Amino acid sequence: MVRVPVKPELIQWAVERSGRDPNELEAKFPDLDRWWTGDVSPTLKQLERFAAATYAPVGYFFLDEPPEEPLPVPDFRTVGSVKVARPSPDLLDTLYLCLQRQDWYRQNALLLREEPLSFIGSATVASDEIATARAIRGTVGFDLGARAEASTFEDALRLMTRAADDAGVLVMTSGIVGQNTHRPLDTEEFRGFAISDPYAPLIFINGTDTKAGQMFTLAHELAHLWLGQSAVTDATAATIANSGSRRRTAAPPTAAAAVERWCNAVAAEVLVPMESFGVVYRPDAELHAEKRRLMHHYKVSTLVILRRMFDAGGLWLPAFNEAYAAEVEHLRDVIAMKKAQSAGGGDPYATGRVRVSPRFARAVLSATWEGRTTFTEAFRMLGFSSVKKLETFGETLGMSEYLKGGAV
User: Fold this and answer.
1) Are residues 168 and 317 both part of a single domain?
2) Is 51 within 8 Å of 14 (Cβ atoms)?
3) Does residue 53 sit in the same domain as residue 154?
4) Which domain holds residue 56?
5) What is the pLDDT of residues 86-131, one digit of tens each?
6) Nearest 5°: phi and psi at 270?
7) Which of 56, 81, 302, 344 could make a disulfide contact with 181, Cβ separation 3.0–4.6 Å?
8) Would 350 be classed as within a structural domain?
9) Would you say 25 and 51 are in contact if contact means Cβ atoms under 8 Å apart?
10) pTM recorded for the entire structure
11) Where is 206: in which H helix or E strand?
12) Into how many domains does the chain fold?
């Protein structure tokens, strides 16, 4: 039996990088502890299985030392004030998949001689936050009235993502890596990211977050695109708390923190404009009831509502801190429950529209039927495995006549 010499530090690196329980991996690979110590080497077949189980490319195990894996876009995530040390393979694989999709869309846009989007990079962190938020609402077409009238948070989020998609932004939302339901994404690691490009701006939203949380992420990442800036962000409770004009802390210590504060402030103003908020907010009402009423009116999280109450002068700092901390704990429980209940399934075509962006999907299907892209490439980028499934997916996107040989 031929064994492949693998340095023990690479075995250790793969286990730690995967984030999986070592005991769980040992149950699958009984010799793992001996690989770890270097007493025995795995066979090639065992190594291939181990690489798949730890989400690591097989070629990495032939290196002399563990590789460095920096994120391909700027990392704005922090735990407290400390940068996150290592991205998970789930985040890396999601980023690389989105970069591949964006690169395809950009090349297709250039081929079709589409015009660049003028709003990309149209602002700086010195730009007025209220004016920038107004520009985003006007360009993307966010309708506060339609959002208030939406029956559910899901309906409101669908309105927002559709508006961003219509404006030229590829919005992709998923709670798993690619099509793998066994690899759920973690909101504790990241909430979303933006990849800026004048022809193919892309926003990815972590679908394991609450619908209200996803709306804030969308608005936050749009602010990054207005800066012309790519970024992986967390948009956590702490950063939302420190957004707005009445800051809870001193000036941000780093340029990255200043950017995140600006993007959060713009996002809050996009979703809950202070001019509107001042009209509908009732400071004398009981806090819990008013918080819930405004949350449903604007279809945003209670964290954003509490922050806007503080900005409007309706809450003193001690009351804000107490209410905010309690709400953070409640939302963590909600997200944990949502994650435990998620089991994949559902309509794959409806899910596909959300995961890959209707704009992107239509472009890929058009290019495939016109012979500019192979079916193999379409299968890979859209996550379907047959021509029939692509046709059915196209029908859900309103492309039935086009795919039958007519015009869109």
Assistant:
1) yes
2) yes
3) no
4) 8-62
5) 789 999 999 999 999 999 999 999 999 999 999 999 999 999 999 9
6) -60, -45
7) 344
8) no
9) no
10) 0.89
11) strand 202-206
12) 3
